[in-house]
Amino acid sequence: MTADKSPQPQDPPAKPGPKKVDEPQEANESAEAKESKDSPSRKRRRRIVLVILAILFVAGAIFGIKTLIFYRHHAETDDAQIEAHIDPVLPKVSGYVTEILVDDNQRVAAGQPLLSIDTRDLQARVDTAQAAVATAEAKIAVARANVASARVQSANAAADLSRYAALRAKEEVSQQQFDASKTAAGSLAAGVSATERSVSAAQAEAAQKRADLEYARLQLSYAKVAAPADGVVSRKSVEVGQYVQAGQPLLAIVQDGATWVVANFKETQVRKMRAGQTVEIEVDAYPKVVFHGKVDSFAAATGARFALLPPDNATGNFTKVVQRIPVKIVFTDPPDPARPLRAGMNVTAIVRVS
After folding, report:
1. pLDDT in tens, 106-141
2. Rounded to the nearest 5 degrees, what angle is found at the Cα of 274, between the Cα atoms of 272 and 275?
3. Where are the beta strands (DSSP E) in the chain?
4. Of 133, 176, 180, 207, which residue has the fewest beta carbons closer than 10 angstroms?
């Protein structure tokens, strides 16, 4: 009997069970992490951050308190500019420009010639007016000669009338002859009055012609355009050969010396503001330099009132906007040649209101 050699069933392989965790090792890692979190370096960094935050808080509080105190006693605005007298140069007669004697940014003195306008038409008007004056004066001479002649004739007629009166009393002449002599004397006396009035008329005409001549000469003098004041040439917009009209802006003269500040403060800032209060002025062109001045005067209306299209709050579309009031501030410091103040410069004005 042979043995059964068929394969026998084998036991299935064992399934891998959950891996056992090394509990002491995990506990050690957690302790190391906790120790790392509470390390002295971390604590030191935390203290530094807290100190910095405390310093920032104290500095902010101090700055806030100082700012609050400052604005209780001061009014500040950066809506301010330097102003100066700017004289426009306008021709008083029309014509072609023949000569320009200055250039942009050139300093000029009052009365200095700036440009010339063609004088030929103006000179012709002067010549015409002179001829009219000569004619009027000739008429006066003729009228005066007529007066002298009329007076002589009137005197002769008066003398004849006296003789005829004496002869008529003796009845040596007829009544008709006496009446004729009387009529002639009266007519010649009236002629004297008429010629005297013609002299007055000729004199009045001559006076008018002389006035025309003076006006023509004045117009001729306007062909030389001069500087109205000491200052600097600005905004020159004229060239030789250009035809200019009377009253047309050609250039401007920014006067030397006098400058001031116009600061536009909010209407809520001027409540305590008074003329004479001291002002610190900071010019953007000269940082860290303080100029000194004082409040001079206040505008009679807000800036919006002078706008091209002033707001009309009666239309129903009303939006309340804080208005600004122009305040004129004059400098109390003497001019500084090293820091010239030019019209239009931006400034910050700080007024001490209490």
Report:
1. 999 999 999 999 999 999 999 999 999 999 999 988
2. 170
3. 74-89, 95-100, 107-108, 113-117, 224-226, 231-234, 243-244, 251-266, 278-283, 290-298, 324-331, 346-352
4. 176
3-state secondary structure of 119: coil
CB atoms near residue 253 (< 10 Å) = 25
Question: How high is the mean pLDDT in each 10-residue block of the chain (354 residues)?
Answer: 45 49 52 58 81 85 73 88 96 96 95 96 95 92 82 77 74 76 75 80 91 96 95 95 96 91 94 94 94 96 84 72 94 92 95 90
Q: Give the residue from 353, 352, 351, 329 showing the smallest Cα distance to 341.
A: 329
For domain 75-86+254-352, give the CATH number: 2.40.30.170
Give the global pTM: 0.67
C-alpha 63/C-alpha 55 separation (Å) is: 12
Amino acid at 312: D
Domain boundaries, the chain: 75-86+254-352, 120-222
Q: What tokens were used for 172?
A: 């040596």
